[in-house]
Write a structure and sequence with these properties.
mainly alpha, 75% helix, 13 helices, globular
Length: 207
Amino acid sequence: DSLAVLCSYGDIFIESLCKDASKGHGVTKILAFSLLSIILGADTYQNWLKHLNSKGYLKHFIESINTDNQNLLMGLSSDNIKPLFIYEAKLAFLAQIAQTEAGATTLLEAGIIPRLSELTILHQLPVSSELYKQHLLVQPVFTLLTSLLTSLGSKHVVANRQASHLVCVHSELIASIVKSSPGEERSKQDYQDLCVVTSLFACLCVF
């Protein structure tokens, strides 16, 4: 199959792809994360996840969320949306990993939830004329968190405690997503954000 063909290139291909995702620029980085997401989704034996973890790439990707935060702050203030698309691709990649219990456990141990809690860009969202940027910032975070909690199960104390703290940190943002003014019409993106936040609360309420 396709995965077997890719794996036949050996560690050189894996290393090249990981380095593109880690140190590449712009489109290179986005494509690398997108390809990694596809490969990890098809890797039944999770050999790629093991490689990413053992070589320190996964930890690096998670820790670099702080750098993404700064790049987003600078980018959005200057209408440079490239950091936004890199951020979206990276979190989609991490959400793919979170869809299995082993992957979610690895992310949790690497400190993914505290890093998401530290995303100050979520408290400095664009003005209402650029709500699509708000959607691109918010949706990946709560999608990743919901996937992780679902994979770990409702009785995972550490994950639920950290997720509850994240909700408290971003409580104003969450409240703005949930509430609406009388007569206000919600967009499709508004409903998508509301859906993923509701799913997150469903995970936490089971606990």
